[in-house]
Amino acid sequence: MGTLLHFRNLYEQAFEDCKPQVAVILLKIYSVFAAFMLFMAVYALMDRALNGFEF
User: How far apart are CA 42 and CA 46, in angstroms?
Assistant: First the structure.
């Protein structure tokens, strides 16, 4: 749990003093999108591994 809080603090500090608010919003949207795509890649790999890599 401490690691997640540390990552949350790093995430919040990264956008703390950014001036163009539009850039901050776009970067936050992009980071959520990238996390979702990473989750989907891991899910697809695990699904293929558990089902015998049938294509």
Answer: 6
